[in-house]
Write a structure and sequence with these properties.
This protein is mostly helical. It is built from 15 helices and three strands. It has two domains: 96 residues, Alpha-Beta Plaits (2-Layer Sandwich), CATH 3.30.70.2350; 206 residues, Rhomboid-like fold (Up-down Bundle), CATH 1.20.1540.10. A three-stranded antiparallel beta sheet has the order 1-3-2, with helices on one face. It is elongated.
């Protein structure tokens, strides 16, 4: 089944569908409102005309060109019985869509995309749990990473890695509190020993710090001696994907989940459950691993997968426009501006860092975004992720 055209006038769509049916071409009409909030046609009812059989597509496309040139041409007047049947179908659809006078409970639309719904609920549940169980501190001790201090028990299990150094630091906080870290001299010998052990235990910080160090000293001093993949190496393979389901705050999860719903509701029906899961898992694992290699384990969020989904739809629009993926011009402009903005911030903070003006983190996993987009592009170029194969 291939998308032939999308009409903004439903009567025009039905008239042309009636003509094609009269010509022996099996068709299917789908009516839906435009859900792309970046489009000028947001909320407008659109009618998609699908050709059921692949062999009929070329014939239908030629008729479409003629119809678009002159829709009032007498040749497009279908047989009376065909028009009547379509008109009756339209009447039935309108009657079924009209709210019943006796029904007082509003109809709630049901989300049919099961995987998208599952991921949405999972991310929300994990977010609520992490927010409720995360430790609350009002002070920030110097010379220690803040990530492990504010991580909830759930985050410790789901982050890409939880190095031994983080575990030691957690034991210090549990035993002596934040005041012990703020004033190490006040801790007993056991506490000082643990804190010293933390500082002497190496863990993977990422390539980025080494790149900054090189530009500061102009000397090659690459150091890969710190242990990597500590927990994954011990069999905790779920950590490859679970950072995707963690989010830092309400704006973080709201942004990612809105994109998940908008994009997932297009991709899942066209790919099917299995290939849609493969897209999510593959892009999540690869983008997470790339981000870990770049900056260490202190990153969370679904945005790497979101970027893969955006790139996937964008590419399928180019290579297979008949599949009906929608990513409107305004949405593409917004995405491009967003990417340029975060890339510009990263460059600015990098320059400030190497010039010793300030050490600032953008708090954005740019590597995961870029790698996720590349994965989405590559999958979209593969025939294994075309809609035609999912119909076989």
């Amino acid at each position: 089944m291939r998308l032939l055209a999308t009409f903004t006038d439903p009567k025009e769509a039905r008239a042309f569908a009636a003509f094609l049916t009269d010509q022996g071409v099996a068709v299917n009409l789908e009516e839906a409102s435009n859900t792309d909030w970046g489009s000028d046609e947001y909320g407008v009812l659109q009618t998609s005309l699908w050709i059921i059989e692949e062999d009929d597509f070329e014939t239908a496309y030629k008729w479409l060109e003629s119809f678009q040139h002159d829709p009032n041409d007498p040749i497009f007047q279908a047989k009376v019985d065909t028009i009547i049947s379509l008109s009756q179908l339209e009447s039935n659809v309108q009657q079924s869509q009209e709210p019943s006078q006796s029904r007082k409970t509003p109809v709630v639309p049901v989300m049919k995309e099961r995987v998208t719904l599952f991921v949405l609920i999972l991310c929300i549940l994990v977010f609520v749990i992490t927010q409720v169980t995360a430790p609350r501190f009002t002070s920030y001790p110097p010379n220690v990473p803040l990530g492990p201090l504010f991580a909830s028990p759930t985050q410790r299990v789901m982050m890409y890695d939880w190095p031994e150094a983080y575990a030691i630091l957690s034991r210090v906080v549990n035993a002596y509190g934040m005041k012990g870290l703020e004033n190490p001299a006040s801790m007993p010998p056991e506490g000082k020993y643990l804190l010293n052990q933390f500082h002497e235990t190496p863990y993977w910080h990422g390539i980025y710090d080494q790149v900054v160090s090189y530009f500061k000293t102009v000397q090659f001093n690459w150091n890969f001696s710190a242990p990597m993949f500590e927990k994954i190496g011990k069999g905790e393979l779920w950590r490859l994907i679970t950072p995707c389901f963690l989010h830092a705050d309400i704006f973080h999860i709201l942004f990612n989940m809105l994109w998940l719903v908008v994009l997932g509701r297009q991709i899942e029906p066209r790919l099917g459950v299995i290939r849609y899961i493969i897209l999510i898992v593959l892009s999540g694992i690869i983008s997470n691993t790339a981000q870990y290699l770049m900056s260490g384990s202190n990153f969370i969020g679904f945005s790497g997968v979101v970027c893969a989904m955006i790139a996937f739809i964008w590419t399928r629009q180019k290579v297979a426009p008949w599949e009906g993926y929608q990513l409107q011009a305004m949405t593409r402009i917004f995405i491009a501006l967003f990417i340029l903005a975060i890339f510009g911030l990263q460059i600015l903070f990098f320059v400030l860092d190497i010039l010793n003006i300030a050490t600032v983190s953008a708090g954005i996993a740019n590597t995961a975004h870029i790698v996720g987009a590349v994965i989405g592009f590559l999958l979209a170029r593969s025939d294994a992720f075309s809609w035609q194969k999912s119909k076989a």
